[in-house]
Amino acid sequence: MSAPLVFLPGWCVGRTPVKATVDALEGEIFDLPGYGNAPLIADFYAAADDIAARLQPGTTLAGWSLGAQLALAVAARHPDKVGKLVLVAGTTSFVQRDGWPHAMAPEMLAEFAAGIAADVEAMLPRFVGGFNRGDARAKAVTLELLQLADPRPAAEVLATGLNWLRDIDLRDIAPQVKAPTLLIHGAADPLMPLGAAEALAALIPGAQLAVFDDCAHAPFISRPDDFLATVRRFLND
Length: 237
Known about the structure:
By secondary structure, the protein is α/β, with parallel strands linked by helices. The chain is 45% helix and 13% strand.
């Protein structure tokens, strides 16, 4: 584990929900564009390139949810910067497309985006509770995530992330990933179905898929010890 480890958080909730995990792995968090002190970058691929520019060659890059999509794009576009890749609850496409059924219906995302624009604080508990549905510790994980969630960024930042989730399809570039890759996915994830992880693992040459049977979208909170053990085995391999 001599290579630096950088973790990209998920949409809306910020860095604090992943901080204990990243600290345990002796890593560093890069905020998503527009979060914390990071400037907003509206173009997804420009955002991925900005992240890559700040990485040391051979970095272990990890990401959760939207952060996993950015990590995947960085690894595909800048193979010299990523020595190993860890994708937590990752997917190539957040919404359903031709040949990609493992996702949310576009109209459902549009409805959610409208709700976020109207009242993010009212929608956030529904969002977090929804993506933990099916987890063996659903109520406890939801409560912990909501307690840990950072203050919300500006509406423009949230809208940019939702636009990425609506528009980005990484199926074409996923096979370009050269770094050894580990996907960690909850079998009960209602936001990104297990089929998305299975299909993504098949696209990335040599990728490993670790499935947590009783988890939903946040396995690092639902089963932190097992999550850390799985990542450490991969990093030390």
